[in-house]
């Protein structure tokens, strides 16, 4: 062997003949089953290959690959493994000169086939499969960086390589579940097909460039489809964890986009399959680096929301195509609900990876996808800043609090609490009760920032109005009132300055007036609940203001109620079986909180007495016009109610015009008449161009063109003022010389001046 190696290095031109001779000998020995000589020939080829790196090695490699192919085609497992080991050694060699005509198609096919070996002996079967995995790893290493080779990322190759690796990953999971003994595991762990497969798979994905991600991931999706592996979730999640951790982080969004596309493609598949894909998306989003959802952020949420809506439709209709034919698949409602929960969790996971400003935009996008009659949501531009995004989100969110469905109203209030609560104070307002000393709540109160003050100045009245209208709802129950109390409490500790405190006290007193009013036709329970809510909140706010006289008045009223009217306090209202009177007629005297008394005691502490003395009146907007609470008469006669001149609630604006039935009627009639005239004019124009002779149409168009030209000439005369023209002055019809501005394109220049 030493002499042969020395000879090959001394005379490189003889290397191809040496390879051809050894190849011929090996083929003959394989045919004659002389396997000892086969091993000797392969060992000789391996050593020559490792030693020689001259330019003429290409022809020798052809002979070498021909021999490896011969071994891999053999039925003997030992020869297949021998050929694979030789190929792996060759794959690790960096060649000095490129090869233009070498093909690895056979090796991809054969190694993939070995990965699926079903040999009877389990030990030999494992060795063959491992040899196949090593062979595929060698092919990838040899071809992935060589632009002159066949592109290993082509679907024809990936569709063989990736499923072969996944098959071994999956079969390895089944054998591992049998839990071998610790000693066996420690010795065989290094040679485990699963670990080898995972390492090979990670290496393959790690080498994938931007344009190759799709070809590498598509076979994974097809394999999981073909073998129904989405439903189990575990293996699918494991595969995509490997993918997400192995590819370059800037390519993560490509994988997520493919998963979203696959989810859309399986829209009419069973809920368990869709839930499996969504679960994988959830894990992928958690692994993806912050903000790497990609350039199409809204597309991600659009797809997930579409799947959520489809699932709800399937659950309601009972079929995937909206019909009730016998041949349609049976929808399992509980599976659809599990899918819906998975989609919602995934939306949250995606949103968690986004920066704050994009989260606000996503909330707006989701709100825009929820159908509300009469409401059109426009997304603001991202450049308008965080506060404008929150402001834009607040308006549509509060619009939902006016809907008929009490569950929707409750959900909206809970979302609002989550947005306002920045110091985890929400759990401390979980129930309504009269607390004699609020220090036991351990509330976290910070001084309001300038942004908080601006926010409340702009949106405070809107929040107060929706709290008032929420208490006015006849369908509101215990949870609604508890959530409204929590909202009042959070506003007091999170966003309240002196002006906001005054407004909140006025709002609480207005709620008391609402409960006393008989015009609203509120049930007894609701009236008692509003009284109790106002009492609990005034008890809270008086202790936050730390004005002794204010606290004394509130506590005195509460004590009177405890003795005479316990049904006006939360402890007797917000319980399982509240003991309420049959009617609520005579609520007066000492059981009521007095606006005059509160104004007096707070005025002594520097609060705005004029504002405190002004009863709170909610501002009604167009939302109420679209809401079911407004009657037709109220809608037609809208009139803005102007408060006192010094009230900050009144913005400086011109007085609103009173809109009466007559003005609305005239506006409607006028608009209808104008529409009719416009429609008739269009009809005449179309009819003219359809029926008039060509000469008439041409004359009409020519006249318009002449008119346009004359107007343009007038404009040019006015705007073009060049230097004096060589043509000098012109003579007017009355014999007078008149200067004229000659356009440049009409000037006559001597020939020598023209270039």
From TrEMBL:
Q: Which residues form a coiled coil?
A: none
Native organism is: Stegastes partitus (bicolor damselfish)
The gene designation is: EFR3B
One GO term (biological process) = protein localization to plasma membrane
What is a single cellular component term in the Gene Ontology annotation?
plasma membrane
The protein, known as: EFR3 homolog B
Q: Which PANTHER family does the annotation name?
A: PROTEIN EFR3 HOMOLOG B, PROTEIN EFR3 HOMOLOG CMP44E
Annotated family = Belongs to the EFR3 family.
